[in-house]
Amino acid sequence: MAEKKAARYGAEDITVLEGLEAVRKRPGMYIGGTGITGLHYLIWEVVDNAIDEAMAGYANRITLILLPGNVVRVRDNGRGIPVETHRATGKSTLETVMTVLHAGGKFGGEGYKVSAGLHGVGVSVVNALSEELTARVWRNGTQYSQTYRRGEPAGGLSEQPAPDEPTGTEIEFRPDASVFESIEFSWETVLERLRQQSYLTKGIWVEATDARSEPHRFYGFHFEGGIASHVRYLNRLRETLHEPIYLEKAIEHVNVEVALQYADDYNERIFTFANTVNNPEGGTHLTGFRTALTRVINDYAKTNKLIKDTEPPFAGEDVREGLTAIVSVKLADPQFEGQTKAKLGNPEVRSIVEQVVAEGLGYYLQEHPSDAKRIIAKTTLSARARLAAKAARETVIRKGALEGMTLPGKLADCSEKDPAKSELYIVEGDSAGGSAKQGRDRKFQAILPLRGKILNVERARLDRMLQTDHIKELIVALGAGIGESLDLERLRYHRVIIMTDADVDGEHIRTLLLTLFFRHFRDAIDKGYLYIAQPPLYKIAKGKSIHYAYSDHEREKILAELGVDSAVAEATEAGENDPSEVPAAETPEAAGGPRATKASIQRYKGLGEMNPEQLWETTMDPAHRVLLQVSIDDAEKADQVFSMLMGDEVAPRKRFIQSRAKMVKNLDI
Q: Is the Cβ–Cβ distance between 265 and 643 less than 8 Å?
C-alpha cells in the first residue's frame, strides 16, 4: 500500500469567523435553510421579540407592514430596546443586540421572565441576512435609530426628540437576495402565523398590511378568548359536541393554558406550544395532557356508571378521537430539543400540566353533566370501533398478510430487500399498472395497481377501512401495519410514489390517497417517504427528435426551440384532426423554404396511453423523472384543508370550489 502524503495542517488553517460572518457563511444552521421557510423565519424572529414584550406585560399592539421592494417593517409599543452603552462591548446596547450573537435580555437578568427565544440568535441573525436593516427605538421621549448593511453598522446611533411618541421598537429590513432563493414574502403565510400568535397571546392587537401593490390589503387580529377562540376557529367546519373547555392555572412559575373541544369526527388534533413557539413533536406538556385526559374521562365514566364495571377502561386513542385541543405553557427556562424547538423537554412540566388538566377537566365534567355524557358516549363508540378494528387486524394477521407472509396478488414486488433502496409505485388502473410493470426496473421498483377509487377515510373509522380491499392491499404491501400496530421500522419501501392520470379522476384518486397517508401514515410523510409522480402532458415529435412537456408553458418553450409556430399548433389541435396526435406547422423561416417539415403533438389523457418504454423514460427513470416530495409545513392548515375537502360539510367545500373555479386548468369535460 502506497504511503499517503500528509496534508499541511497548522494554526493558519483554522478559520475564525468574526461577528455575524458565521451566520452569512452558514445561514441554514440558524434559520433552517435559504428557501421560502428560512425567508419567513426572519419575520418570525422579529415578531417573536414583540410577542415577548407582550407576554412580559409591556406591549399590547404589534403592527407589521410588507412594503414594496420586499421590505418588512414590524413595530411594537413595548419598552424599546435599551440604548445605553453596554459595559461588556463598549457599544450601545442596541448595536450589541443587533450585531452580537447570543446577546439579549433572555439569558438571566430581569429583562424577561418568559420568552419565545432560547438560543439568543434572534434579531442579530435577521440583521446578518438582510441587505439593509434599520432599527428605531422610542425611549425617554427620544427616537434612536441606526442602520446596518449585511450586519455591519452603516453609521452611528442617531437621536432626535420624540416627546409625543409612545415607547417601542421598530425593525425594518430587506432580506439579502444573494442569500435566499427568493425574497418574495407570502401574505397568506404571514397572516396564518400572526393569527396563531394572536390566539396564543390573548388580548393583544395585531395589525398587518400588505402595501406591495394597490389596493393595500389589511388584516387585524384580537382575541379576548385566546386559545379557546382558536379551538372554535379550528372546528368551524365541524359539528361539535359542546362549547370549548378552557383551563388556566399557574403552578411553580409555569403558566398552563388548555382549550379542548370534541367534534363529531374520527381524527385527533392536538397542538402544543411553549412560550408561543409551536412544538410539532410535542414533549412533556403533551404527555401530561394525554395522561390526565385519559384518567379523568375513565374516572368520570366509572363513577357515574356510564360504563360497566366489567368493561375494560378506555384507551388513550379512544378519548382522543374527534378531539381538538391546544396545550400552551409559558415558563422561564424552556428546554427544547434542537434549534427548531420541535419538542419540549422540561420534566417538571409534565406533572404540572397533568395536575392542571386533571383538576380543571374534572370540575368541568361534574358541572356540565350533559356535555360529559356526550363525550363519554362518543368515547364508548370509539372504544368499540377500536376493538372491532383490532379484531379485523388480527384476522388479517392470522392469514399472514400484514406480517409479509402473503403479499397481495396485484403487487409486482422488487427484488431489493433494503427499504432505503426500494420504491413502490401506487398506480391508477390496470392498464397503467401493466405498462408500469413492464417498463420498471425490477430490482428496486415495485408496482401496485389500484382499480377505481379508494374509500374516503376522512369519513370512516379504522374498522370500516380494514373491510375494503384497496386499503387492505396497500397496507399489506407497505408492511408497516396500521393503527396501534403501525411500525415504520417495518415499512418495506422508503419511496412510496403516487402515480395517477392528469385528469379529474386522477386528481381525486391522488387526494384520497393523500388523505389516507395524512390521517393514518403521517410519520411516513414527516420522514419524507411519500412522493407524487409527474407524468408528461405532451409528446412533441419532429423527425427523429422526441421531446416531452410537463406543462403548457414547457410545451410552448419546446415548440419555440423547434421553430414551430405555436399559434398554428394550437389552431390545429382545436381542429378536426385526431386530438391525441396532431401536426404542427413550422414557421417558414425555421423550415428554410416553402417545404415545411411537420411536428406532431400528442396530448396524453392518461398513463395507459404510454407504452412501457415511454413510461420508464418520462416518469420512472430516476435519471430523468420528476418527483414531488410530499411535506407538511403547516399541520394545522393541512388538517383544515383535508377536513373541508373530504369531510361531510358540503357548504364550505362548495365555497372553496366556487372561489377557485376561474383558476382551474386542463379540466376534462
A: yes
450 strand-pairing partners: 428
- Check whether residue 170 and residue 307 sit in a common domain: no
Segments in 329-368 forming alpha helices (H): 347-367
Backbone angles phi, psi at 89, to 5 degrees: -110, -20
Mean pLDDT, to the nearest integer, of 232-237? 90
User: What value does the mean pLDDT take over residues 575-587?
Assistant: 46
How many Å apart are CA 97 and CA 105, to the nearest integer? 9
Residue 219 β-bridge partners: 208
Which sequence positions are flagged as catalytic?
Answer: 428, 501, 503, 505
Domain with 187 in it:
21-221
Among 453, 449, 451, 429, CA closest to 510: 453
Orientation of helix 369-398 relative to helix 347-367, angle to 10°: 120
Task: Let me know if residue 121 belongs to a domain.
Answer: yes
Are residue 209 and residue 65 in the same domain, yes or no?
A: yes
- Residue 650: per-residue pLDDT: 62
Q: Decide if pLDDT at 353 tops 90.
A: yes
pLDDT in tens, 94-105: 988 898 876 555
E strands in 162-292? 168-175, 205-210, 217-221, 245-251, 254-262, 269-274, 277-278
Helix (H), strand (E), coil (C) string for 107-146: CCCCCCCCCCCCCCCHHHHHHHCEEEEEEEEEECCEEEEE
Distance in angstroms (rounded) separating the CA atoms of residues 85 and 83 = 7
Q: Look at residue 485 in the predicted model and tell me its pLDDT.
A: 79
142 found inside a domain? yes
Radius of gyration of the chain (CA): 30
Asked whether 70 and 42 are in contact (CB, 8 A), the reply is no
Residue with more model confidence, 464 or 146: 146
pTM of the prediction?
0.69
Would you state the pLDDT for residue 337?
A: 78
User: What is the CB-side half-sphere exposure of residue 62 using CA atoms within 13 A?
Assistant: 28
Q: What is the CATH number for 259?
A: 3.30.230.10
Instruction: Tell me the range of 302-316, 351-365, 596-610 where mean pLDDT is highest.
Output: 351-365
359 and 286 part of one domain: yes
In this prediction, residues 262-284 reach a mean pLDDT of: 91
Cβ burial 157-172 (10 Å sphere, 16+ → b, else e)? beeeebeeeebbbbbb
Question: Does residue 155 share a domain with residue 107?
Answer: yes
